[in-house]
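Follow-up to my post from last week.
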Amino acid sequence: MPTNGTLGQTLDAPSIEVRNARFAYGARPLFDGLDLVLEAGRWTCILGPSGVGKSSLLRMIAGLISGGNGAAVRCGDGSATAGRVAYMAQRDFLLPWLNVIGNATLGARLRGEAADLDRANALLEAAGVGEAGNAMPDELSGGMRQRVALVRTLMEDRPIVLMDEPFSALDAITRLKLQDLAVGLLANRTVLLVTHDPLEALRLGDRIFVMNGSPAGLGPPLEPAGRPPREAGAPEVLSGQARLLRELAEGGR
Amino acid sequence: MSVSYLRPIVICAGLVAVWQAIVSLSGVPAFILPAPASVLLAIVEDARLLAGHAGVTFIEIALGLLLGVVLGAASGIAMSFFVPVRRWLFPVLVVSQAIPVFALAPILVLWLGFGIGSKVAMATLIIFFPVTAALYDGLRRTEPGLLDMARTMDASRFAILRHVRLPMAMPAFASGIRIAAAVAPIGAVVGEWVGASSGLGALMIHANARSETDTMFAALFVLAVMAVTLYFAIDLVLRRLITWQPETYSSDD
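User reply:
Got it. Predicted complex:
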């Protein structure tokens, strides 16, 4: 079993299969009959324009909405995804009345469990916000807030991590730093990252799908060479960017 | 800074000057509009009498506020948490607002007597709806993304209510309490007008019958000072307790 240093517990990240998923607003389906496999312990990125249904697909995998009749979302070992998923959104959703430690340990509070403060402090340290434990969220910069949100996600210690454009509200340099940090801290987990930024997908993704059309479908995956996080100027990133932009533009016609 | 402290004093002085000017220039008799000085004299001479009646009115307002806020909060929470309560209670509450509450005052006095009970009931009744509506609205407006996150953390509905929705709704609840603090004195005084042996409203009715207009004005002044002090005291406490703002916070400027 792979372990994630001293910060994570022993993980056994499953693959995830989505079969025949459908989601509609009223009569118009955003997607219908959609299939997707997230490989175990790797980063899968879904790239697509706003409103194409990326977030709905992610919420479906998180078990927050139903996949429709005849749809199936399950782990590779046949079990349900419920209770094995951590979720991180574009907004940090830090609670303004709790300090950084309180926010990082929110999951335990919501479940009525005792918080693992040692682990929270170690993770805050690893995320570069170790000094800020007693600070209130409104004292933090956007980048620091998102670091705390990342720690809160990691505190859940789930084998599957679903991220919905978690870095898109940050400035370019902060975004690069947080991408590197996330790759390090989420090693060996099955990660789904939804984004509209081709560069982000190419830096972080083991497999990248473009989601396009109406109803939307997924193209064949792009599997860039090298290990994430890739350099922004690496050849496979630059050539991939041209291809992804072309695919996005084709679907937009 | 100093201007903002000075402003209310200047406004009050201006109003008193206008008042004195009207009395001096129009020659209106004292039983219609007494001069500021004679009202001040009445306040000093009748200090004991006024204080006694003010105490009764204050108790009515305070009890009405307490009951109205507690009952309003309970029904707001119940409507938000229990769907059947919402479906049955909400239409009743909305329709009940079509009844002018003041028209109920004679009935309340008939049922609850000339003591403070009917006045407390009156204040409670007019406070109840704004408090219920404010808290219910605040609870309903919790960020959907925040609720998604809490659900992936396996939080129960009750835990989400207690740790997320209720604290998030506190600024809205505080607005409801501020409105309650502003209207509670109206309820108490209207109750006293309809039938009471003590309280500032009763004192005004008696003074009116005996054409002691300066006493009426003195009672009105004491009532105004009491209501304004109560409002600002409650506003101060709420500001201290609730330091966070809802996400959509806008300023007038």
